[in-house]
Amino acid sequence: MARFNTKSVKARVTSAVKSTGRTTRTHEGGRGHLRDARSELFLLSVANFVSQQTFYETGDRRDDRFAALVRRLAVEDPEWTAGLLGWLRGDGNLRTASLVGAAEYVKARLDADATGGPTGRQVVASVLRRPDEPGELLGYWTSTYGRAIPKPVKRGVADAVRRLYTKKSLLKYDTATKGYRFGDILNLVHASPDPAKPWQGDLFRYALDRRHHPETAVPPEGARVLTAHRALMALP
Fold this sequence. Notes:
The protein has helices at 37-45, 59-76, 78-89, 95-112, 120-127, 133-145, 151-164, 167-173, 182-189, 200-212, 224-233; strands at residues 19-25, 31-35. The model has no long low-confidence stretch (mean pLDDT 92). By secondary structure, the protein is mostly helical. Strands 1-2 form a two-stranded antiparallel ribbon. The protein has a domain at 19-127. The longest helix is centred in the N-terminal third of the chain and has 18 residues, at 59-76. Helix 2 packs across helix 3 (78-89), helix 4 crosses helix 6 (133-145) and helix 5 (120-127) packs parallel to helix 7. It contains eleven helices and two strands, in the order ββααααααααααα.
């Protein structure tokens, strides 16, 4: 005898996206429902490619709305917001939105002098997962808030640098087209080499030399790929 597979069975519909119960008018005058802040931020985040125009909303307006929601929830609900930003960069594979969100998370909590919940340092480090992303985040921060970089950003970037900077990443991402080279980032955040990576100190020194003294920079001893690359670039 069937207990569940019957003609009268109905699916139980649940969703983490919730409305407030209040109604409003859509862009075209139709009836709309206002969502709570978490639902609004989630739906915007998963479709946010930053600075891109949409049919009903300009890129700048979407960016401002995203930043405002992150700043609000970074203070009101930091655990959830930090989790969302980490998920966006990880399973969500949305790089730019998560970097912008992490910067706005730090800014909001500094402005509000908030102390509870995940730290800005933790959130920044959690969204930096590719070696070129520390420079991306610093580029966003300085272009939005100026050259004064707060400690949570510096320390979060430094944590990521120790995890991400390798010989291969130096060749792939430390290029002259970048505004922030590896050496610039090391100077800004004062990252110390990872004690578990004895080769990283020499790599950091080489990254600094490549940036400030490229003509005389010498690859670390034993770094065959870096040595071969320098020899190749020296060919006429």
